[in-house]
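Quick board copy: two proteins, each given as sequence then C-alpha cells.
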Amino acid sequence: MAPATDARDMVTPTVDLVLGASACCLACVFTNPLEVVKTRLQLQGELQAPGTYPRPYRGLVSSAAAIAHADGLWGLQKGLAAGLLYQGLMNGVRFYCYSLACQAGFTQQPGGTVVAGAVAGALGAFVGSPAYLVKTQLQAQTVAAMAVGHQHQHQWFLEDSWMVALAGGMISSIAVATVMAPFDVVSTRLYNQPVDRAGKGQLYSGLADCLVKICQQEGPLALYKGLGLAYLRLGPHTILSMFFWDELRKLTTRAQHQGT
C-alpha cells in the first residue's frame, strides 16, 4: 500500500531515502530468522518427487529449532549483512523515487499513485537484486546433514577483511546521522545567529532555547533538515575512517611484530 501523500510532503525525497532504508533495515533484523526458515523450506526437495527425499525442516517452530541446533542460534541470522544491504538499497531507492513522484505532483493524477508505486518498486527491486541473490545463498548454507539445495561456499567478512570495517561504517553511520541530526541543526543555528556587541546571541540564548524555538515555530521535523545530505557526508566519512583505522592498525601490528 502506498504511503499517504500528504504525510510525505513534509519531508524531502533524500530524507525519505534515509528514513525508509533505516526503517526497513531495522525490521530486517527481526524478520531475518523467518527468512532463513522460509529459504530452507523452499529449497527442501528441489526437483525431487514428494516422499523420495529426507525432510529435516517441518514447519516454522521445528525448522527454527533444527537450524539453531545445527548452526547455533546465530544460524537463524544467516545472511543478515546481505539482507541489510538488500533492504537498504531496495527500499531506499523505492521510497526516494516514490517521494520524488509525490513532490512532482504525479501521484495526484489519475492512476499516478499506482504507476509511481510500480515504477519505484521495480527500480528498487532491480538495484537490490544482487544483494538478494547473495542473501539467499548465504541463508541456505549449513552443515552437510541439514543441507538443502546447492551449497555455495561464500565466505563474507573474514576476520581481517577490510569489508568488516566497511560494513560496520555503513550501518553505524545511519544510526549516527539519525541521532545527531537535531544537534547538528541546533549547532548550525547557534553558530550562525547574529550577535550583539557583547557577543550574545540575538536569536537563541542556548541549546535548549534553540530546540524549543525550532520545534514551536518550524515543527519537530525541522530538527532533521539536511538529514539526507548529512548521511551522504557522514556515511563516506565514517566508512573511510573505519577503513583507514583498520588498515593502520594492521600496519602498526605488523611493524611491531617485525621489530621484535
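And the next:
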Amino acid sequence: MASKAIPSSILVLRIVTLLALVASVVVLVTDHFTLQDSTQQHFQDIHAYRFVLATAAIGAAYTLIQLPFDIYYACAQKRLIRHGCMPEFDFYADKLVSLVLASGVGAGFGVGFEFKRVLDDLFLLLLALGEDPVSLDEEQSKDNAFFNRANIATGVLLVGAICMAVISVLSSINRTSNSGFFG
C-alpha cells in the first residue's frame, strides 16, 4: 500500500490541474477583438488555438473523470476498482494526457509568439510605407492584446501540463508500490 501522501498529493494536483485547464479554456474562448472594418477576430480563426482548446478540454474531461476515483483513494486508502487495473490505467493514461497537454502548450506558444513577431514586423513595414500611425497603433494594440491573452491561456495550460506530469510521476511510484496489473 502506498503512503497516504501519494494519494493525497495526486488528489490535490488533479484539482489544481482541473482548475488550470478550465481557466485556460475560459480565457481562450473569451479572446477576440474587432478590427476597424468591423471584422471580428476570434481564437478559433487560428487553427493552433483550436488545438490548444481541444487539448485543454480533453485534459479537463479526463481529470474530471479521474477525480471521484482519486477522492475515494485518498480518503479510504484503497482503490474503488480493485484487481490492480487502476494503477496500471493511471500509469499509462496520466502519461498520455500529460503529453497531449504539452503538445497543446507547444502549439499555443509557438503560434502566439511567432504571429506577434510577424505582425510587429508588418506594422513597422506599413508605417514605413506611409500608413496612418494612429490607426496602425490602434490595430497593433488590439493584435497584441489578442495574442497576449492567448499566450496567457497557453501559460495557464502549461501549469496544468506540469501538474499532470507530476501526477504521472506519482502514478508511476504508485504503480510500482502496488503490484499492478502484471505484477
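Board note added afterward: The chain has one domain: 8-25+45-175.
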